[in-house]
Specification:
Helix content is 32%, strand content 23%. The protein is α/β, with parallel strands linked by helices. Helix 6 links the parallel strand 6 and strand 7. The longest helix is centred in the middle third of the chain and has 20 residues.
C-alpha cells in the first residue's frame, strides 16, 4: 500500500465523487438497456464490463445524494468506429440518467490512464465500473477510507481475495 501511495498520491483537494465507466473496445451493443456479457471466465463466471440502467437503479438513492460526480472514461480505448459510437451512446445514457436524478455529471475528458487512476482513487465516493481496472481502483479507494458504490451489487455476490497488500474483488455472476 505504501508503494501505491507513493506512486499514486492523493489528489488534493480530494474529489467528492468519481464514476468510472469501462468503454472502448468492449462496447458492442446497447449495454445500457441489455446485459452485455463480454466473456466467460474459465471458472464459468461471466464478466460484465458495462452496467445496465437496472444495475444503476440498485444504487439510485446513494447517487442522488452526490450532487456532482466526475466521470472518468475513455471511449476510444483500443477502439474502432463502431465501438466508439456505442461508447459515446453509453456515456450519454449515463449522463442523462444522472441528470434525471438531480446529479450534475462532469465528463473529465480523455486523459492518460495513470492520471485517471490517481484522480479516481483519491475520491471520497467512487462509483465502480465493470472490469478489473475499476475493481482495482475501488479497492484502493476503500483502503484510503473512501466509499465505493457498485451498480447491481445488491443482486450479486462479491468475493474479497487477499493479494499482497491490496484487495482484489472478484464477482460471481
Amino acid at each position: 500500500m505504501e508503494v501505491l501511495d507513493e506512486v499514486t498520491p492523493l489528489v488534493e483537494p480530494r474529489p467528492e465523487a468519481v464514476m468510472h465507466l469501462r468503454l472502448g473496445d468492449i462496447a458492442k451493443g446497447d449495454c445500457w438497456k441489455n446485459d452485455c456479457i463480454s466473456s466467460k471466465l474459465r471458472s464459468g463466471n461471466k464478466l460484465q464490463y458495462q452496467f445496465t440502467e437496472k444495475d444503476y437503479d440498485t444504487i439510485r438513492d446513494e447517487l442522488k445524494d452526490l450532487g456532482t460526480i466526475t466521470i472518468v472514461a475513455n471511449p476510444s480505448h483500443l477502439s474502432n468506429p463502431s465501438t466508439i459510437a456505442w461508447s459515446e451512446k453509453y456515456i450519454n445514457h449515463v449522463m442523462a440518467y444522472l441528470r434525471r436524478l438531480g446529479v450534475c455529471p462532469v465528463y473529465r475528458g480523455i486523459r492518460d490512464a495513470d492520471d485517471d487512476f490517481a484522480f479516481a482513487t483519491s475520491a471520497k465516493v467512487f462509483v465502480q465500473g465493470g472490469g478489473g481496472y475499476s475493481r482495482f481502483m475501488a479497492n484502493l479507494v476503500m483502503k484510503r477510507g473512501g466509499r465505493v458504490l457498485t451498480p447491481g451489487s445488491k443482486h450479486r455476490s462479491v468475493i474479497i481475495v487477499p493479494f499482497k497488500d491490496v484487495l482484489l474483488a472478484s464477482r460471481l455472476w
